Fold this protein.
Amino acid sequence: MGSVRVLSRSGEPFEDRVEAGCMLAGALDEYRGVNAVVLGVPRGGMVLAWELARRLGAQTDLVLARKLGAPGNPELAIGSVSEDGRAFIHDEAVALTGASREYIRMEKERAMTEIARRAGRYRQVCPRVGIAGRNVLLTDDGVATGSTMEAAAWAVRRDNPAKVVIALPVAPEDTLRRLAKGVDEVVCLRCPPCFQSVGQFYRLFEQVEDEALLALLEACTRERSR
């Protein structure tokens, strides 16, 4: 199990995702100049990823992994599928939920359809970055249940990075503890005792539209070529 580093129990809201990213970068200075890659969970997580990468001198990419939801409880992850189609199945979760092989096959097909849809648009402007042997920082604008982030971490692990760190502005403590089981470290700026949704901890929490995300991905690609 990886370590969990919580910087504050405050419930004070961030102004927006940019401020959260700036503050989070300050807590991750040890990853500056260590061949790091910052992977954002689209869409809001890419705003954080861009801010982190700019301040840490890292490369940026998005992670298109999708969770496989449990029967009757799609928020509970029983596995994940990576962008290249490889699946990670959490055997304990499968046993607890009674997911059949046929159900898992159908969930994988559903997940791959969504990944293909996103990749068809996003990868035109932002080719994948190799992460084997590198330090990977996985980020989002916050998590509640953490199942999507958990699935992303499972998928990233299959590409043999040197280290996987989940970096978040805000999350509930029980979620952080669970996420730490699958990565080397979890870093979270704020872990408030009363948590209802990620949006309650931002004064500005507008949806990131595809057009804005594509513009951000283009900027990431330009930055790589410098």
User: Anything to note?
Assistant: The mean pLDDT is 94. The radius of gyration is 17 Å. The chain is about 40% helix and 20% strand. The first strand starts at residue 3 and ends at 6.
